[in-house]
Amino acid sequence: MLVYGSCHCGAVRIEVPNAPDWIGSCNCSLCTKLGWLVAYYPDDGSVRVSGETMPYIWGDRMIAIRHCPTCGCGTHWDSTGESYGRVGVNARLLDGFAVAEGRFSIGGSELEVRYVDNAGD
Ligand SMILES: [Zn+2]
User: Fold this and answer.
1) What is the pTM of this model?
2) How far, in Å, from the CA of 11 to the mean position of ligand 1?
3) Which of 12, 54, 69, 97 has the most other CB atoms within 10 Å of its CB?
4) Residues having C-beta closer than 5 Å to ion ligand 1
5) Could you report the per-residue pLDDT of 4-49, keeping only the tens digit for each?
6) DSSP 8-state assignment for residue 94
7) Would you kindly state where each structural domain of the chain is located, as residue ranges?
8) Ligand 1 geometric centre to CA of 66 (Å)
9) In this structure, which CATH number among 3.40.50.300, 2.170.150.70, 2.40.30.170, 3.30.565.10 belongs to the domain 3-116?
10) Residue 36: partners with Cβ closer than 8 Å, 6 or more residues away
11) What is the SS3 assignment for 33?
12) Residue 120 CA, ligand 1 centroid: distance in Å
């Protein structure tokens, strides 16, 4: 079932094929500062993003971390060149996402948080 999302101001709209089974909390230097929680999807066109986004590219320059230039919300990341086979969406932007007492859910279904070790970046 499609799940929709948007940034805070609504300029960027996101459509993903399904709610994530789990979300990733990544310890890289950027996610640590931004507080992203990432839902991963195959890079097969099933994630649709509309509206202008600004890329931030650093380090090995393999992925572009994108945000809304108006409200600043991190929206998604994708490959800058050859596909990794997956893309990442900021799960916090998906409709129905909620956080309560440190537990995360979408539409009332609690999400498993997996800790993703990318601190080597
Ligand atoms: Zn925005």
Assistant:
1) 0.92
2) 5
3) 12
4) 7, 9, 11, 68, 70-71
5) 999 999 999 999 999 999 999 999 899 999 999 999 999 999 999 9
6) B
7) 3-116
8) 11
9) 2.170.150.70
10) 26, 30, 74, 90, 92
11) helix
12) 30
Between the CA of residue 27 and those of 32, 44, 55, what are the distances in Å?
6, 26, 20
How remote is the CA of residue 19 from the centroid of ligand 1, in Å?
Answer: 21
> 22 vs 19, 27, 69, CA distance in Å?
9, 16, 28
H/E element, 48: strand 48-50
Q: Which amino acid is at 40?
A: Y
SS3 93: helix
**Cα(75) to centroid of ligand 1, in Å?**
9
- 107 Rama sector, left if φ>0, alpha if ψ -120 to 50, beta otherwise: left
∠ CA 10-110-32 to the nearest 5 degrees? 60
Residue 111 is classified by DSSP as P
